[in-house]
Amino acid sequence: MSTLLYVAAGAVSLYVIVYYAVFRGVRCVSSVKLKGKTAIVTGSNTGIGKATALDLAKRGARVILACRNKEKAEAASFDIRRESGNNDVVFMQLDLASLKSVSSFAETFLKTEPRLDILINNAGEDVEIRWNIPFLSLQHQLYLTSLLHCSETTISDLSSFLVYTLCSGVMGPGRTEDGFGLALGVNHLGHFLLTNLLLERLQQCGPSRVITVAALLHRFGKIDFPLLASKKDLVSGQSTWHNFQAYCNSKLCNVLFTRELANRLEGTSVTCYSLHPGVIYTEICRSLSFWQQLLIMPFAKLFFMDPEGGSQTTLYCALQEGIEPLSGRYFSNCALQQVGAKGRDDALAKKLWEVSERLTFH
Questions:
Q1: Domains of the chain, earliest start first
Q2: Residue predicted with more confidence, 160 or 235
Q3: 60 close to 33: Cβ distance less than 8 angstroms
Q4: Coil, strand or helix: which one is 178?
């Protein structure tokens, strides 16, 4: 009996160590106050976006919840005002799947808001997850092999990758209002246009920051410019594999966009960062049935982050003092991380910027 107790105690201790070292993640410890500052957080009616907005509100910022769904965003703003004690939290409608909506949002914001100090490009097309546990596809196996052979890969990277690849769908198929693939249009082009339209205000209010939420899966992205020109997308089909690849591609775009933005802003008072937030259990379970959630949620809560934990690297990039020289770089777990080889390609980043300009500015 005593041996069994020792084994159980050891297992619990090991879990606690692994959870806090790998899954829970590092916390942002910045004590910076934001009274008199204004922040925009896209996709902030739920998940890590809402958790990010709440933290900024607690620090005294005026927070703009830039969201598509009015009802959910107004409910979120009510929750944030109540929990933070900050009444300076408002909703402004933004649909990143519509370039017209992005332009309208920017026009309204610039007319009504005198400041912009922090822009957080957090929103992404809704994650749709269908569990695919029996096997990994050949492509997933090849990607896993490349991760295992990379000296920079961490345990957190591997856990994140395995969760994503145990899901048969990361991004649903479809098109934006302007005819672009959803992943490309929402995750990249919408934020690209938004940032550019607000850039002058950010420069006027410097020092200011632009934070774009990317993902570990940027490492498996690729940019096919001829395909983009012919299909208005970076994938050629709508299969499960194509949807997964579209998500990876859009996250590579996030990393490259941030890199080129930093190059263009060099010498100004605006800095920018991209990041991997970790795997959030609410995102894993969002699309599951009640009974599936009942089965999976306890395990997900044990091994993956809650929205507050997932917001920590975003907050670190938005608030941490002294990281200005690292503008354009990529962070994970509140620390600087190396991006994949394609994410370090300045020529690719420059070309993506130029193509994105042509696609979004008519």
A1: 32-360 (3.40.50.720)
A2: 235
A3: yes
A4: coil
pLDDT for the residue numbered 208: 98
Token pair of 288 as six digits: 């599951």
What are the residues facing 305 on neighbouring strands?
280
Mean pLDDT for 58-73 is: 98
Region for 311 from its dihedrals, namely left if φ exceeds 0, alpha if ψ lies in -120 to 50, beta otherwise: alpha
Per DSSP, the residues of 247-280 read HHHHHHHHHHHHHHHHHHHTTSSEEEEEEE---B
The packing angle between helices 240-265 and 346-360, to 10°, is 100
pLDDT of residue 17 exceeding 60, the answer is no
What are the CB-based long-range contacts (under 8 Å, 24+) for 12-20? Answer: 15/302, 19/302, 19/303
Cite the beta strand spans of the chain per DSSP E: 38-42, 62-67, 89-93, 118-121, 208-213, 270-276, 330-332, 335-337
143 tagged catalytic: no
| Confidence (pTM) | 0.84
Whether 165 has a pLDDT exceeding 60, the answer reads no
Q: Tokens representing 266?
A: 């060099």
Among the listed residues 247, 273, 281, 316, the single catalytic one is 247
Asked if residues 11 and 36 have their Cβ atoms less than 8 Å apart, the reply is no
Choose among 160, 128, 109: nearest CA to 310: 160
